[in-house]
Amino acid sequence: MEYFRVRHFEAPHIRLVNLTDHMTYHLPSETLDVEIIKQFCHSYLEGKAKPKLQSEPIPEGWDEKPVKELVGMNLEKVAFNPNKTVFVLFYVWYSEKSRSMFPLWEELAEALKDREDVVVAQIDASANDINMSMQGSYPSLCLFPALYAERVVVYTGKRRIKDLVKFVDKEMKKAKKDRVKEDEDRRKYIEAMKEEEAKENKSKDEL
């Protein structure tokens, strides 16, 4: 029950958990009979069931420490900020391997603290459902480049400060080039929309 975050007063309780993408599906009924459970299973297998996203409350002062504390409800807003490079440690609290990453992540945040365009953050994936496809096991280190496109780059290198900083710098250089193209595409799109709007207004005036 602890592993699946089911509290004692919620039992008996049925849910489906996809351990590949860590999505959770709750039985949408308090009545537990064979037919209802069968319908629930079929809805999942047919792709009709909707996942239930769980989030801890946003901690007070979550962004005041070097390592920002994210939860389910603010992860995407922070990670997909087009003006920030965001490096996130996805961990699970019950894993010793995950917890062993904390000192390194604190050290990384300290090393990058003077760079206002870089955010170092962490989120407990065992207490918050992640509304994005996660690959591999935890802990997982994912970098979100400063782009309008929602891109995630999974770090697979050595877990040392110099290698992590080098990875951040490398991805920022890539994103900078891509951002130039993004900005140009956005400019062309806005101009095209203005031209289209001007044509429509002209046609209305002629009518």
TrEMBL record:
Gene3D superfamilies: Glutaredoxin. Pfam families: Thioredoxin (PF00085). Transmembrane segments: none annotated. InterPro entries: Thioredoxin-like_sf (IPR036249), Thioredoxin_domain (IPR013766). Residues 44-173 form the Thioredoxin domain. Coiled coil: none annotated. SUPFAM superfamilies: Thioredoxin-like (SSF52833). It comes from the Eukaryota. Signal peptide: none annotated. Belongs to the protein disulfide isomerase family. This is Thioredoxin domain-containing protein. It comes from Xenoophorus captivus.
